[in-house]
Amino acid sequence: MPDYPRPDFQRPDLNWTSLDGAWDFLFDDADHGLTQGWHHQGLPAQTDTHPRGRIQVPYAFQTPALGIGLHEAHEVLWYERPLTDIRTAAEQARGHRLVLRFGAVDYECTVWVDGQRVGGHRGGHVPFDLDVSDAFRSEGPPATRRLTLRVRDSPYDLSQPRGKQYWGPVPDSIFYTPTSGIWQSVWLESLPRMRLGGSSEGTVLRSDDIAGGHLHARVAVLGRPAGTKPQVEVEARLGGVLVSRGRQHLVSDRDWASVDVDMRVSDPTPLQVRDAAWKGGVALWAPEHPVLYDLTLRLCDESGGLVDTVESTTGMRRISWTRGDGTFRLNGKPCFQTLVLDQGYWPETGLTPPSQAALRADIEMAQRMGLNGCRKHQKVEDPVFHYWADRLGFLVWGEIANGYAFGDDYIDRFNSEWTEAVRRDLNHPCIVAWTPFNESWGYPSLKDNVDQRNHIRAVYYLTKTLDPTRPINDNCGWEHVCTDLTTYHDYSDSIELASSCADLERGILGKKSDRDMFVGPVAQDAGSRHAPGAPVICSEFGGVNIVPAKGTAAGDRDWGYTTASDPEDLLARLDRLVMGIVQGGHTCGLVYTQLCDIEQEVNGLYSYDRKEKVPADRVKALMDAAHRFYHERVAPKEGAV
């Protein structure tokens, strides 16, 4: 597997270097660093309360992994390390730029090189890039500069999108140890001045036209000299065999080109694509056959000279969820989603995966239990996760961290970060739904507050503008305002859950946690507030823990929503819960809480250290039974839901 942090958009001749590893680190509890000029002079050896130390990036100071491991509140953090110009003499002669990339820094940061401010960013779960070329103007051999970061991450600001990160000193209930500062990889690249932009810069690979058989690519170009008309080419291969190419010159007033590529194959026989499903000559992507086309994007100057090349992939697939039908379809066929709530935490590293391989391992763990996807909960996961989900055929609901205090600050913060998250991930075929909000977190008065409802409605249309190809689950669980999916959360035990799931109007659409399922005119275009015919999905249920054995350290803080006596009881409960949902006849997908135990919340199918709590093959057997029941008994009736 490539170790480059963005393997979904990679240059074959990329000159890059990782900046992960040991950095100087200092708490600035008195917030003196700016006034004392630490960015100009370097971090001091000591403040009034803390000595300068070392930290292993990208692990947060709250985690034990090769770092500091403190459960303490520190709002202002400083990082520092050397930064060396990696450009070769030939690259410098061609005008290559030096770009500093951050996977994610929680929450707000400013960046300096040798005391010169080179930029900053706000938003704790999304990437950002900074061009640091001008800080290396001196001639001669590669120069070394001092890279300095100041990070502010309030432990208490509830208008800051924080997800499951707790605002108290000790994790509690369903909230976990917070993550402050750099928590995803940092790296440096040498890039052409004029170059292809990634998805965050506006490149969109729209791959849902399986009827027409075309990939519709909108390819962004960065650094185009004014008045020039470079050419973009997109080449598609399948199984190593060329399918077709599309080319387009930029017009003078645009920094992007629209390129259509014919993805149809006249004779699939020589391609040797394993388990492919075909429609009109197009190889389709689905969990059962995650076939990817290899893409090569090329940028040429006006004279035809090659300037930049990027390699990527795409999966041709279409999602449909038309109201009045009640069916979630993938490639025109009913798709029953057996998903798992995946929070993306690890014992030693918190939100940061301990390795790239750990991301693949979590997907394979879920698949061994017959789960065909996940709702990635309150987190924008590392891009390597989506890289593997594309290749392994794992469905993903894209989500983001919510805040807990509604207001103008939150609106501004959320809109910016959500937009960046959607743009980062929208080219992945594995993503099949967007979930911007969860259980009215940050919206305590949706029923009575039009401003709160209007923001959720505005985010729905913002998301639809960014990506019209996927359904939007506006406010997961209840109090839907404007939605494509009717999702509900129900942690009842099996008998009560089965009864509720059998009654659409009074059960599924009844109050949840004393909240209405819909607020305001949910479906104005359909003339109904109940969005009739929208796919109904139980997007949280279960959460069953096993009672701790006598004499163990587990005690008052270890909990689940309901408790099993032993692994056999957990399996029996899981069977009754899953079949209770699907046998009700109204639900076309489910999300079990949760994949792994996390700190004090011990209701995972796996322990926190990724050990089976129940046999994976037995869980798979009952999930397979749910699939069979749905496709044999429920899917044909969905038109009446």
UniProtKB/TrEMBL annotation:
Residues 18-172 form the Glycosyl hydrolases family 2 sugar binding domain. Keywords: Glycosidase, Hydrolase. Residues 358-486 form the Glycoside hydrolase family 2 catalytic domain. GO terms for molecular function: hydrolase activity, hydrolyzing O-glycosyl compounds. Residues 283-317 form the Glycoside hydrolase family 2 immunoglobulin-like beta-sandwich domain. GO terms for biological process: carbohydrate metabolic process. It holds the Pfam family Glyco_hydro_2. Transmembrane segments: none annotated. Belongs to the glycosyl hydrolase 2 family. This is Glycoside hydrolase family 2 protein.
